[in-house]
Design a protein that fits this description.
Low-confidence stretches: none
Bound molecules: nicotinamide-adenine-dinucleotide
Shape: globular
Number of helices: 16
Largest sheet: 7 strands, mixed
Radius of gyration: 21 Å
Order of helices and strands: HHHEEEHEHEHHEHEEHEHEHEHEHHHH
Strand order of the largest sheet: 9-8-7-6-10-11-12
Mean pLDDT: 97
Structural class: alpha/beta
Strand content: 15-25%
Oligomer: single chain
Length: about 425
């Protein structure tokens, strides 16, 4: 019997082994066993603290009403207020969101931010909505979860399918529904806002920038330097496009990109800046004149140094892992590698840089934004980047140190370092009452 089966048995819950929540909790519990976490804390971390599902109507432009479903999962707040993105996507499932909330708890702990973990989502295809419908959907969802979020209790942010404009509507709704005396404190209820409305310099590129700082910390130890490398990317949204652009600015040749519209390749290196503009205009990479179209299997099999998944969960399963021809998988997306995919890659000595380290730049600059809002301050981009680099370097060092102490993979080391911090804080605080 595995530790996960035992713990879920005690909690009287049951998941299939393919379930992404099962897989996330398994990774956490394997690391918990390694560090010797007390069983009572294993049980706490294996279940979210709160799960809220809301069904709410929205009037469409044609006058008709549609019912939407959204959720907010608050996994753990021993380190501070819950923190995590809101996903707008047709495949939003509660177990996916629970998994992402647990990952947020680990990520904030690894970077030692004063936040716990949460995640939310709305099951919707935003491409089918007008701007007006999207705004009404956002405002109505915000009012539905209104009593469960606040700048000192739970602070949402953007994720797949949401953006700075959506965060602005969320903040504005929250501020308007609050009494006048609390109105302006309400600005800090979400992060990832536009700069003109309480956002932080450097937040839009933060996840890609943090990933770049992590690579600059770790690659020299692997005898690699960004200026000599080739890379391919899945996803060219916020995380993928910033990662691609920042890598290219450092001299890395981005040979291929795939997104939901198709895959393109250019062995001389794609023009990552022009590609970002093209995707903004056309909605995807397909048809980009600076690359030639390739099939999905050819994309996965292309020889590169860095393979960077920056799209959805569980995309690198065993079949895809067999195709990969890279030295390092850099996990920019959350949970992009399945356990089967991971063990195949590790057997082939492909290094995997884990998501909770690689993509923690987003929540770190969200923390800087929240801090600026609370102190009524504005940092410039240089200050944001310097602070981000220091946080990423600290987290990378903790992962390397844990990998050395426990003689384990970088993924297990990242979870182990996060769990040690959470355990330490539980020891100091105790469990109420
Ligand atoms: P986004 O919506 O901006 O972009 C998502 C990208 O994924 C798009 O390019 C889309 O085409 C692509 N995609 C979707 N389905 C696909 C498929 N089936 N095949 C290939 N490509 C597909 O989202 P994002 O904010 O860039 O988030 C990407 C990942 O990074 C997610 O796992 C998210 O949770 C994670 N993440 C995001 C942030 C952030 O600050 N935005 C921070 C940390 C982690």
């Amino acid at each position: 019997m595995t530790e996960t089966t035992k713990v879920f048995g005690e909690l009287q819950t049951n998941y299939s082994q393919e379930n992404v929540y099962y897989q996330t909790i398994t990774a956490i519990l394997e690391a918990a066993l390694k560090v010797g976490l007390p069983h009572r804390l294993e049980l706490i971390l294996a279940q979210p603290k709160n799960e809220l599902v809301v069904n709410f109507p929205v009037q469409m432009d044609d006058g008709d009403y549609r019912l939407f479903q959204g959720c907010r999962v608050q996994h753990n707040n021993v380190l501070g207020p819950f923190k995590g993105g809101i996903r707008f996507h047709p495949n939003v499932e509660l177990d996916h969101v629970k998994s992402l909330a647990a990952i947020m708890t680990m990520k904030c702990a690894l970077v030692q931010l004063p936040f716990g973990g949460a995640k939310g989502g709305i099951r919707v295809d935003t491409h089918q909505l007008s701007q007006n419908e999207l705004m009404h959907l956002t405002r109505r969802f915000t009012s539905s979860i209104m009593t469960n979020i606040s700048p000192v209790y739970d602070i949402p942010a953007p994720d797949v399918g949401s953006n700075a404009q959506i965060m602005a509507w969320m903040a504005d709704t929250y501020m308007n529904l609050n009494g006048p005396e609390n109105r302006f404190d309400g600005l800090g209820v979400v992060t990832g806002k536009p700069i003109e409305f309480g956002g932080s310099a450097g937040r839009e590129k933060a996840t890609g920038q943090g990933l770049l700082f992590v690579l600059e910390e770790l690659l020299p130890g692997m005898d690699m330097s960004l200026s000599d490398l080739t890379a391919s990317l899945i996803g060219y949204g916020n995380v993928g496009s910033w990662t691609g652009r920042l890598l290219a600015r450092k001299g890395t040749t981005v040979r291929a990109v795939m997104d939901h519209t198709g895959a393109i390749r250019n062995d001389e290196g794609l023009d990552t800046e022009a590609l970002a503009e093209y995707v903004t205009e056309h909605g995807g990479v397909a048809g980009f004149p600076g690359g030639k179209p390739i099939g999905e299997d050819d994309f996965y099999a292309l020889e590169v140094d860095l393979f960077i998944p920056a799209a959805m969960e569980q995309m690198i399963d065993a079949d895809k892992a067999k195709l990969l021809n890279c030295k390092v998988v850099v996990e920019a997306a959350n949970a992009p590698t399945t356990p089967d995919g991971e063990s195949l890659l590790l057997d082939r000595e492909v290094a995997i840089l884990p998501a909770i380290l690689c993509n923690s730049g987003g929540v770190t600059v969200s923390y800087f934004e929240w801090k600026q809002n609370r102190q009524a301050e504005t940092w410039d981009e240089y200050t944001v980047d310097q602070n981000l680099r220091a946080r990423m370097a600290g987290a990378a060092a903790r992962v390397q140190d844990a990998a050395h102490r426990y003689d384990c993979s970088l993924r297990m080391a990242a979870y182990a370092a996060a769990i040690e911090h959470i355990w330490h804080v539980y020891e100091i605080r105790g469990i109420f009452p």
